[in-house]
Amino acid sequence: MKDRILNILKSMDDSVDYVSETKLIDDKVIDSLTLTALISELESEFNIEIDMDDIVPENFNSVDAMTELVERLQDEQ
To answer: Which domains are present in the chain?
Structure first.
């Protein structure tokens, strides 16, 4: 799953070291437009729905955080 998320991120911008970056939102590596596209891609790829309550920096600052979010949302279905 983590690799699939990495592939989505790299398809959006392959100049970022997503493996080591832990402040993608806080450091504005991912802006609001990119985040919107990322959410759409994650929802489509993993057949999940990301609620507004889940759209917080803690869930998108790192690949690990995104993986945890996706896993949690899949478990809730």
So the answer is: 2-76 (1.10.1200.10)
Are 76 and 65 spatial neighbours (Cβ–Cβ below 8 Å)?
no
Q: What is the number of alpha carbons within 13 Å of residue 19 lying toward its C-beta?
A: 2
Q: Please give the Cα distance from 23 to 31 (Å, whole number).
A: 12
Cβ contacts of 12 within 8 Å, gap of 6 or more: 34, 37, 38, 41
Local structure of residue 42 (DSSP, 8 states): H
Q: What angle do CA 73, 59, 27 make, to 5 degrees?
A: 160
The Cα–Cα gap between 61 and 66 comes to 8
- List average pLDDT for each run of 10 residues in the chain, which is 77 residues long: 97 96 97 97 98 97 98 95
